[in-house]
Amino acid sequence: MPKILIIEDEAAIRRVLVKILSEENDSYSVEEAEDGLAGIEKIKNTDYDLVLCDIKMPKMDGVEVLEAVNKIKPETPIVMISGHGDLDTAVNTMRLGAFDYISKPPDLNRLLNTVRNALDRKELVVENKRLKKKVSKNFEMIGESDEIAQIKLMIDKVAPTDARVLITGPNGTGKELVAHWLHQKSERSKGPMIEVNCAAIPSELIESELFGHVKGAFTSANKDRAGKFEAANGGTIFLDEVGDMSLSAQAKVLRALQESKVQRVGSDKDIKVNVRVIAATNKDLFKEIKEGKFREDLYHRLAVILIKVPALNERRDDIPLLIDYFADKIAKEQGTPKKTFSNGAIKLLKEYNWTGNIRELRNVIERLIILGEKEVSETDVKLFASK
């Protein structure tokens, strides 16, 4: 039930507003406050979905209320109630963050439309926050080993800067998680994070994917198209498997890093971009450089900060934590009770040679949960986790 607070010093206006809102929608819960100070006290103690606030009031006027709410409950939309002489002030309050304003005496349709729109906006804000939390949970970094502690410390130091980061490590170790943590803990976290899997894009299309193209640049270019660098403007671009990028694309990426500009394929027009670059690879780039497959100047541009993600075999003490994490996650995904693992089963799993790293461990845990007993035993591991 949406909760609405009316802050208005004129009792007659309060009664009109309560009557209109209650009759329009009996699912609204409407409360009143006779002045700004009383309203702020209520807002401190209750999460309202919308506040309707008069501008001219004793003790604390509407502008002061707006500024206070922006500090204590910034996600709460506020609609200002203005008398005829307050219209200029009402417009100015929108610059300070008010959702909208309505004039006295309130027009029925205008009031109801504004209330509905403001409540929709609050719902969107709440949903966005929920999704952000979900994203954050999807990219949790599980582990208490020294290796993981060092990576977390490095992320905390590096994330607030715009320094480029090169993440190295075998497949399945969690390089993508590191990239997401760097973005989420950065000043750019409100901007986009655009991921590009350089190994999955054919070499003849990688430049178009990264930098976009203009209509007619090649046979299938039927219209102008922005590239990933443009899409990431104001945020982060994550170049996964950067070691698989073609040399011609590497040259253009190098220019983009040097000049903060890109050119769409088929165009000579520069487009300025403000992008932080994070790259990852499972390849030995020094070996690639020696073989002429990777540009040394690009390597030095990308590797301002190096983060090496260890193989799972190098952090076996984290395996019990990962087993518990995946068992919980899989149970929630499947809507089934969480299964436990016996000490013998955990001991066996710690001794396995995890060539596929965390990705392989997750698949094995899911298989054991599906095929094993209520408590996954040592026998279950021997039967179902063998390679």
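Second entry:
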Amino acid sequence: MVNDRTSIEGRGNLSRALFGWCLFDWANSAFPTVITTFVFSAYFTKAIAPDAVTGTAFWGYAMSASALAVALAGPILGAVADHAGRRKPWILAFTMLCVVTSAALWFARPEASFVVFALVLAAFANFAFEMGVVFYNAMLPDLTPQERLGRVSGWAWGLGYAGGLSCLAIGLVLFVQPEQPLFGLDREAAEHVRITAPLVAVWFALFSVPLFLWTPDTPSSGVGLTQCVKHGLSTLASTLKSVREYKVIARFLLARMIYTDGLNTLFAFGGIYAAGTFGMSFTEIMIFGIGLNVTAGLGAAAFGWVDDGIGSKPTILISLAGLTVFGAAMLIIESKMLFWFFGLGLGVFVGPAQAASRTFMARLAPAHLRTEMFGLYALSGKATAFIGPALLGWVTVAMNSQRWGMATVVVFFAVGGLLLLPVRQP
């Protein structure tokens, strides 16, 4: 397998290759923004499920099952891909699966009989999205030198936030909000909301093309698929058995698992906290969510330079410190205006924590195990995803306070930062 940047430069224009790679973040971010966060998830709970409580629970079960499948399949398929050499065929396969299943959500009518249909499609689409990211992330170190990893990762992450919000804005302006939606869609049959799923599919398919046309892949190893599977499973087993040889990576993944639980819980319950504690309306929450994504994207892009300047680990620690301070302030304040100030300020540190984590993994992972390591990276983001929401719910009930419940998120950031401190930066 070829891993040096010179050979990859020789196979295509580097700037165009990097732009194609970054644009894939713009392309695929439409899926989590529109489908799993803002539009389709809300449509499912309000219109398809028997009631909002049942719908929320069902949607949570489906996404959890999808996350578990990613946690199990990511390291295995990553190890297989490392032996096969090429990564783009895997990205293409999972992109196509996500595009097709997302488009098929159009047929999920606002009737209880479509509950299983919608959940199965959404779960498969989410699985495909997450798996594609495993192989996509593993391409980064082959495309740019170590001293530029941070800014490229940050630019791509920032572009991803912008892409997701752009697709969301188009969906809202053209279809969801107008009294007379484009193409004469039937509001009674919720077609004005359902159309956002095919919109995501078209968006993802269209803007992912530059990656496949412009961004070079590592060459094929020439080994047959059966042998790749055999060697991949053997390598993965060997990696897990000799974890002491990769103790720096293991410590980083443990720390990331903790602070990512905090981020995931923040995303899942931030709107609920805003509505319950500060009395924000659904429209206000939507605007706040969009604003949070904007500041997160700007933070990711800006901190890319910091990442390359002082390293990924200090960048993550600065981000976690910012998340802890701003998060703690949001637990104390009473004013809605201050909630907006600290909430949007907190977003500035969300993007860098995510982008710099990807960069740190790219810098730590051995070249011959890179995709496998990014599979384990995906595992660290999914394996304990249930702990944060469960702990928040338990503390909220025990203390009869949303503020105390949300305080657990700050603890995850602080503990994750403390676990990261002894990790040696390469």
